[in-house]
Here is the input.
Amino acid sequence: MHSSRKRKTTTAVAALVALPLSLSACSAGSLGSSDGDAEGTTINFLVDPADSSVKPAQAMADAFHAANPDITVELETRPAGTEGDNLIKTRLSTGSMADIFSYNSGSLFQQIDPAKNLVPLTSESFAGDVSDAFKPNVSVGDELYGVPIGTAFGGGVVYNKDVYAELGLSVPTTWDEFIANSQKIKDSGDGVAPVVQTYGETWTSQLFVLGDFHNVAAAEPSFADDYTANKAKYATDPAAIKGFEHLQQVHDLGLTNSDFASATLADGLRMVADGTGAQYPMLSAVAAGGLETAAGGDTDNVGFFALPGDDAATNGLTAWYPNGAYIPTSTTGAELEAAKKFAAFIASPEGCEAQTSASPPTGPYLVTGCELPSDVTALTQDVNAYFEDDKQSPALEFLSAVKGPSLEQITVQVGSGISTAAEGAALYDQDVEKQAQQLGLEGW
Here is the structure.
């Protein structure tokens, strides 16, 4: 089979994920619109320090100012991680927040007390342009508080389309089909790793569990609420434990690459790009960015499919949604009107185009009228199809604040054959309990 497939030689992949930079908050002047005026209204826009956030935000600020010369948008950055989260909460509580800011959607958004701290956007004309898939992640009750910045992505399987074509395989819509495909790849005798795992970077081990949540929710619609209320456990819920069981099964059947214990994300993407690995459970946005380097710019042979479950009828994508842009209640007067106008720009095709000019999209914009450019990768097109067909649902982290910090170590144990699926799920339940107690959640 190798003789009929074009081989690609690539160098090691560096800087695959746009990790938050260790920057102190830059001054508004250094990041502000390059054409600031002394007259008119100036508003501050607070974003996280990652290059992948700053560049699109600056592009939107510049494009917005060009269309609205009486309004200048100056960028500020905040620290990443817990320090940044604490800063957001402190500035909201003290009334010192920037005029508009970017922050998480989903469960973390709920923790900043939106009804108290944010300006509702429900009655604004641009609210109707926000995707219905995104609205629940930035809403409290019937009130909408944010607009999406950036693109959505999914957790699933990156795969080599050439390998699939040469073995006559179809994209699986059930787990049994996925295992059957993997077994055929193994039995082909070509030495291609059916399922790539990269435990040299432990966080990559979590996808069989985290990416399976669409299937969990399809089987147990109340799981997220029950899990948050300490009424459902991974070890005892028949749907939730399957992610751990799938991880164990792939190991027990010998379907992984031989160097799974030491391989890195860069290795995994290179393997899928050059065909030495057939399938790699991964976040689509991470893969879309890294594959451009791993595949030498040619990614037409790499696709993406949702992690399948038991029922083909409910096959769909576990989705991660972009951050939201929010206006705090401390923004008033002319700045409030300017911030609303900027929010409308963000939630418009012009805003999407500005973001695309700074950073190629790796998934769909969740704004009406925003279309992906024709030259996006095949992988991104595959992800977008799940949103166009409405075959996606939110990852658990958008529905619950409960996520144990040791999951990646536990999934490495299960995926390496050190722990069984049942043992791993039980360990994770213990990990979750500690975290929920730290958060002070009811029922724990």
About this structure: The chain is about 40% helix and 15% strand. Residues 214 and 318 are 5 Å apart (CA to CA). The first helix runs from residue 28 to 31. Confidence is low (pLDDT under 50) at residues 1-38.
